[in-house]
Design a protein that fits this description.
The protein is α+β, with helices and mostly antiparallel strands. The chain has six helices and 19 strands. The longest helix has 26 residues.
Length: 352
C-alpha cells in the first residue's frame, strides 16, 4: 500500500534534469585585462578551447577559437605577429576577425578559411568576452556599467583570486535570492533583504550583522548587482580594526562546461588617505582574505550538493523561483523572451 493510499504525506521527489548543452548569452569576465599580453593564452570555456592575445599593433585583446581548421593545431601555442596569430604547425596566419590572412606556401587562401572571433571589451580594468548561442553581436545596453570609482584614483586596484567550482553555474546565481543561507553559511544576521528584477539586471539589497566582515555591534550593508547572467559587483560597508571599510566586491563566473565553472573573485577598496600606499595595499589584502574566508563556505556546499530543479521552499526563503526565471532569459533566443522575465519587479523577504 502506498503512502497516498494510507493517507500519509508522500515522500518529496527531487527533480534534477540533465543540463542542456547551451551557455548563457551575455558578457563574461575573464579577469584583469593587464594579465593578457602578446603571448597567447589558452582558455577553456563554453565547452570549447579558445585563445586570447593582445595585438602588438592595436594593443587590443582578441579572442579566437583555438583550433586551426587546417590540421587541428592549437593556436594558443602559436605566436603573435602584429594583430594576427600565426599557427605553430604550418604558419597559417589568422586575423583578429577570424579570417585567414596568409598561407606562406599557398597561392591563395581557401574562401572557407575562417574561425570564430569572439567580441571583447575592457571595462573597469577587466576583460570581458561576449557569448551568444545565436551568434548575434553584443546588445549595446548590456555593456557592463562603467565604475567611476575605478577610474577616480581614490580606490585600490582589483585584488583578484580564481576558484573552480564543480557544479552548474545556476547554483551561484541562486544566492541572489537565498536569504536563508546567510545565517548558517556566512554567520550573518540579516535585518533587511530585498530583490529587484529589471531587464538584464537583478539586484540584492541586504543589511545586518556579520561575524567576519563587520565587527561586533556594527551594521554590514551590501548592494549586489548582476549585469547579465555572469557579472556581479557588490558595494559593501563593513569594519576592520575599528575603521569603516567600503569595498566593491567582484564575483563573476565563466562556465567551463555544464558541470563546472570558474569564479573570479575580486576586491577593490576605497583608499584611506591617512595610510601609505603600502598600508592601503596591506588593508585590501587583509580584507580580501576575510571575504574569501566568508565566500569559501559556499564553495564547500556547491562542490557536494546536487542541482534541484524543484526546490521545496518555505515562507522564510527568498524569491528563488523569481531569480531563476529572470536568469532563464539568457538561455533563450532573444525573440522568445517573455516580458515577465524582464519587467521590473520587487520582492521583500522579511527575516523571522
Amino acid at each position: 500500500m502506498t503512502a497516498a493510499m494510507k493517507g500519509e504525506t508522500p515522500v518529496y521527489i527531487i527533480k534534477s534534469d540533465p543540463v542542456p548543452e547551451r551557455y548563457a548569452r551575455g558578457w563574461h569576465c575573464l579577469g584583469l585585462a593587464s594579465e593578457y599580453g602578446t603571448q597567447p593564452v589558452q582558455l577553456n570555456y563554453f565547452g570549447k578551447k579558445l585563445v586570447a592575445y593582445r595585438g602588438a599593433a592595436d594593443d587590443t585583446i582578441h579572442i579566437l577559437d583555438a583550433y586551426c581548421p587546417h590540421m587541428g593545431a592549437d593556436l594558443s601555442k602559436g605566436k603573435v605577429c602584429g594583430n594576427h596569430l600565426v599557427c605553430p604547425f604550418h604558419a597559417w596566419v589568422w586575423g583578429e576577425d577570424g579570417f585567414c590572412k596568409d598561407i606562406p606556401y599557398a597561392k591563395r587562401v581557401p574562401p572557407k578559411a575562417r574561425i570564430k572571433s569572439w567580441p571583447t571589451v575592457v571595462q573597469n580594468g577587466l576583460l570581458f568576452v561576449w557569448n551568444d548561442p545565436e551568434g548575434n553581436p553584443p546588445i549595446p545596453e548590456q555593456l557592463p556599467k562603467r565604475s567611476e570609482d575605478y577610474y577616480s584614483g581614490e580606490w585600490t586596484d582589483w585584488n583578484m583570486a580564481k576558484l573552480t567550482i564543480h557544479s552548474n553555474c545556476r547554483e551561484l546565481v541562486d544566492n541572489m535570492a537565498d536569504m536563508a543561507h546567510f545565517g548558517p553559511v556566512h554567520y550573518s544576521k540579516v535585518h533587511t533583504f530585498r530583490n529587484i528584477q529589471d531587464g538584464h539586471r537583478f539586484v540584492q539589497f541586504m543589511s545586518g550583522g556579520h561575524e567576519i566582515l563587520a565587527e561586533e555591534g556594527q551594521v554590514f550593508t551590501s548592494v549586489a548587482t548582476y549585469e547579465g547572467p555572469a557579472y556581479m559587483t557588490t558595494t559593501m560597508t563593513g569594519s576592520m580594526d575599528g575603521q569603516e571599510v567600503v569595498t566593491h566586491l567582484l564575483v563573476t563566473h565563466v562556465p567551463v562546461n555544464t558541470e563546472q565553472f570558474d569564479i573570479r573573485f575580486g576586491v577593490m577598496m576605497k583608499r584611506n588617505p591617512a595610510l601609505s600606499a603600502e598600508e592601503n595595499k596591506a588593508a585590501v589584502d587583509a580584507y580580501t582574505q576575510m571575504c574569501i574566508d566568508s565566500f569559501i563556505q559556499d564553495v564547500e556546499i556547491w562542490n557536494t550538493k546536487i542541482r534541484v530543479d524543484n526546490p521545496l521552499l518555505c515562507d522564510g526563503d527568498g524569491p528563488v523561483n523569481m531569480v531563476r526565471k529572470w536568469y532563464s532569459q539568457f538561455y533563450m533566443d532573444v525573440a522568445e523572451i517573455p516580458e515577465a522575465l524582464t519587467v521590473r519587479k520587487e520582492h521583500v523577504t522579511l527575516p523571522r
